[in-house]
Amino acid sequence: xxxxxxxxxxxxxxxxxxxxxxxxxxxxxxxxxxxxxxxxxxxxxxxxxxxxxxxxxxxxxxxxxxxxxxxxxxxxxxxxxxxxxxxxxxxxxxxxxxxxxxxxxxxxxxxxxxxxxxxxxxxxxxxxxxxxxxxxxxxxxxxxxxxxxxxxxxxxxxxxxxxxxxxxxxx
Length: 171
Fold this sequence. Notes:
Elements: H1 2-21, E1 25-37, H2 39-45, E2 50-63, E3 69-84, E4 87-101, E5 107-120, E6 124-138, E7 146-156, H3 160-168
Antiparallel strand pairs: 1-2, 2-3, 3-4, 4-5, 5-6, 6-7
């Protein structure tokens, strides 16, 4: 009963916020590429790696009364197959990223969902990065953005690049 009341209150707050903020600008980008040489993985793994990718990304940008972005909800629904002459692996990236534009010019990004789930033929899931990660990103006047890890929850199993290279390497 308490849970139902809390859900009803939260739903009312969400609906009121959505009405006050107006509708977001939305863009859905289909992604469908085949046979792309992955220069980064090729360099890191030490042998040629290619990938095929299929799915879409939907961007929703919410703005204030002056048209300035205040937050985003970006939904990913991507399936990737990495392969080399020695093998292949399938990777799923599914879930929303929630971005908040802070008053100081920085952003807070919550990356949520099944961010990287790696499946190997005959082995099933060999790597999992599911749950959420919170990042704080600042933009200095000079140089690259600074990404600060804030917190995380869920299953985060380590170095996905090493897992992919290992599965694509010769026996």
